[in-house]
Amino acid sequence: MTETVPVRAALLGVRFIAPILLCFATLSAPAGAQARPGAPAVPVAGYVQDQTGGMLPGAEVTLRPVVAGIGGPPRMVTTNDGGLFRFDDVPAGTYELRAQFQGFTPTALQVRVGSRAPGRQKLTLEIAGLAQEVTVATDSAAVTLDPTQNRDGVSVDKKMLADMPAFDRNYLDAVSAFLDPGAAGTGGTTLVVDGMEGRKVGVSASAIEQIKINQDPYAAEYARPGGGRVEVITKAGSEAYHGEFNLTFRDGALNARNAFSDTRPTEQRRIYEGMLSGPILDGRTTSFMLSVNREETDQQAIVFAQDPAGPVRLTMATPQRNVEVSATVNRQQGKKQTLSFRVTYQSESARNEGVGGTSLPDAASNSANRELQLVFSHRAMLTGTLVNQFRLLVGGDHQTNTSLNQARRIVVQDAFTGGGAQVDQFKEERHFTLSETIAWSRTQHTVKAGVSIPDWSRRRFDDRGNFGGTFSFSSLDDYAHNRPYVFTQQQGDGRLVFLQKVFAAFVQDDIAIRRNLSVAIGLRYDWQNFFVDNNNVASRISFAWAPGSNARTVVRGGFGIFYDRTGTGPMHDVEQSREGHLLRYTILNPGYPDPLGPGATIANQPTSLVQFSPAVHMPYTAQFGVGVEQQLAKSTTLAVTYTGTRGVDLFLSRDINAPPPPLYLTRPDPTHGTIRDMEAVGRQWSHSLQFTLRGRMSRLFGGSVRYVLSRAQNDTSGINSRPANDYDLTGEWALAEFDERHRFDVMGAFTPWSWCRLGVNLSLRSGRPYSLRTGRDDYNNGTANARPAGVPRNSLEGPGSARLDLRWSREIELRKGKKRDEGAKLTLGVDAFNVLNRVNYNGYVGNLSSPFFGQPVSAQPARRLQLSARLEF
Fold it and tell me: Parallel, antiparallel, or unpaired for β 229-234 and 190-193?
């Protein structure tokens, strides 16, 4: 239901007035901590740059006394967006300043501090070879006030990526267990590649430098909270030639049998992947990186269904092919400008899609997709404190889906799906993505502002899906007696061309109020076409406070508003209805096999519509949280964080032309069938308590360990979900589909011997809820999702799951280099997924009319082995 006027007014007040009040509080606060009586209190400041003079934001700088016990404990800060750093209240003495940054060789210098502040220090980092070993186990465990260094996040670098068990080298899936499903928007998890929002990484797995999750959860720069966002940093070129080539192989003979298959299917997976980087000409200003990925998959879909003749147990080959090639050129233009250009081409094809579970082989389809993408990036140091970053992505793709069988589709709810797939479509897209950010640093302030166009695209759809029509039956008995409850069909001109436009702007100020207190204040504006809602201004506020004198404890908290987007599917449906080209028909209680009877034609039937509600606006999520981070040892931290999330006016769909109560017999508007009205009236609440242990926890193990206790409730499953009764939403408020009361994850690596590493990925989950349904169209609205009287949504719960993945690897040195980890080496690895071979059921059926009621119809894969070889030089 929508909010009351006082509640909405209060939320608007929080969004707009809170940042202003906090700004006044900040301006009235002291500029810095007072010097201690009788002791020098001087700052040590400077900047970090690369060998070309370009500033390096995000570099770690450590200030350590040369003589232990004189000058206090070591301290660490991170350079701001201008590459600047500053330590306040430094006592007299001699110190070592050490700087390090991903992909560069660390450097250090000594600085002497007296009664006056020393001059501005300069630390220059040289580009390191790509073979440099940087692991998550040696990640600095020092807690800091930097908003991007929260210790309840997960940061996995290239060495840890190489060590972790990753099925088919899909690193994003391997780390996705640390995402918060409640933080994802309508379009799913947000992917940010090299600082720009995108839909794909664009390089092969070996060209990924780092993956981050939940970094700076309340940053105004991003559309989604940290738990719903994956940030990927790709590798740059290098001054010397470096390469990595990987061969990954799986075969069904090495796998255990799936619980729903009578035999072990014949399967095989082959991945040829690698990257090469090096200088162009003398390499002083220009370098390149080339990455290639070729995937060949010959796998089997498992069918577990029942038709009138009895159980159906079979497998069907579903081969896939994928090729991706990417080339990047980086150039240093003078001392203050860096240019980068990347081109990526991808071609994919898949056969016999849609088969598996209760879907039979005759409902299969084929698909093919080709995509070309160009990315340009320009980074300029305008002044010593002003940095500008411009990024532009231009791309295009086209995709085809073709049904193998043109027969009418037959759906018997949770028993079997047969006939044709009815998914014939052609999609073409031309799009660009743009981001422009500027960062300015001075004394206690680091201000970052920018504009972005996450999507501006011309989209073409040629939709001939369901032109043959679909019959739906509630049960096998209804099918045997020719009693479908609904027939749906599309006719007419399915061609559509429209523009999708998304725009955003933000500003954020990170303020060092005192030596032990920092605050980040931001505002963000989001806009999307198809909406008349233009006032989507969201506030973001976070703080970090170190209460102790030794800075081993940091308290963090924050609040943020995050607006949602619809995605392209709903826009496509609405535009087709608006233009009247694609006609949709919904016939209730039709005849079979002729839905209309003798002499009648589909063209004389009332058409169905899809529309946005006139009052629709962009939903938003309000997230708030507080946590404590404690440095337990030199290389280990513990973070305990509470996070609350409230979803306001979330998307859902209703048929506003459904037959009304109490009899549910006839539609109010007989000239139309279903009128799907997409509205923003849903709501959601979630609470979670997270315990995150991160760093090197012992001599043998380093990584991340997390336990989450959570609860999530809502009354909508998304923009495409419909309530059981279109006139009554009271039974919809229940546990969310993604609710998992307990989650426990371990990701890291054991090193029992110098020649052996054992990557670990452990995931333990509570069961997720699902709904009890009658399986009948009790409300005569063309759906079969009615529930028994008085039964709320998601009243049943499936079983929990447990999965342990391991990777054993052995590194063999082929040729020594001048420095550590240079030269050539061969790494052999064996990955075991679900190594304990536990049967993790999913797809539980809550349909009372199904022969599988209360049973699962699928399970996660059984134990699988993956062999790999990696050559590096």
Answer: parallel
